[in-house]
Amino acid sequence: MPEYGSLLQAVIALIAIANPLAAVPAFLALVPARDPLAVRRAATRVALAVFAILLGAVLGGTLVLEMFGISFAAFRAGGGLVVMLTGLDMLRGESGEASEEPPAGAAVHLIVPVAMPLIAGPGTIITAMTMAARAASASRPSALLLAASAVAGFVWLVLALSGWLQQHIGHRGQAIVARFMGLVLVAIGAQLVLGGIADFFGLPVAPNR
Fold it and tell me: Whole-model pTM?
């Protein structure tokens, strides 16, 4: 059960902070929305790029920490703080990374800005690295690889259905989802901060439930 709990928490955190719904307008501006095949191909390209970015963060995160001499506990607490601040911005209705507009005439450039930074932006990468540091300290790195795959699959699903989602959910629905995800991020970030502080000082931590 702890393995499934870690996997679920990683997936929820990454999906919440990536917020692919916020990238739907930019995505539709770069692909012919009336061509379902083109939309699916574009969604596949973006999802693969997101997976590659998350995979790099998960696999290279430990090396970066060792290079700069940063402990897992310190990075976990710092990353949790970033996650909390991002969640607070979402609760206040501030779009943050997703406010960036795609450059004009960039119809063929789906990797930038849709995959990065609209979906896999700095906050998403830091979250993946924080989760990777936590998983490495608990000898559960495979959970993060499965989480990255699940997030990429969710991104593909959202973008493949982007036209339908924009028509039926609209901006108000996207704002409601963003605020709910913000609340989830604040809670996850708080848990990461408290867990990192406890690890740093060698304090006992209550098990995740």
Answer: 0.75
Q: How many domains does the chain contain in total?
A: 1
Q: Is residue 10 part of a domain?
A: yes
- Structural domain boundaries enclosing 26: 2-201
Structure tokens given for 122: 């700095």
The answer to whether residue 127 is domain-embedded is: yes
Report the range of poorest mean pLDDT among 6-10, 16-20, 48-52, 125-129: 6-10
In the predicted structure, residue 164 carries a pLDDT above the cut 90: no
pLDDT at 159: 95
Q: Is the pLDDT of residue 21 over 70?
A: yes
Range 107-128 burial, b when 16+ CB lie within 10 A, else e: eeebbebbbbbbbbbebbbbbb
Quick check: is 103 in a domain?
yes
SS (H, E, C) the chain: CHHHHHHHHHHHHHHHHHCHHHHHHHHHHHCCCCCHHHHHHHHHHHHHHHHHHHHHHHHHHHHHHHHHCCCHHHHHHHHHHHHHHHHHHHHCCCCHHHHCCCCCCCCCCCHHHHHHHHHCCHHHHHHHHHHHHHHHHCCCHHHHHHHHHHHHHHHHHHHHCHHHHHHHCHHHHHHHHHHHHHHHHHHHHHHHHHHHHHHHHCCCCCCCC
* Euclidean distance between CA atoms 24 and 27, whole angstroms: 5
Residue 209 covered by a domain: no
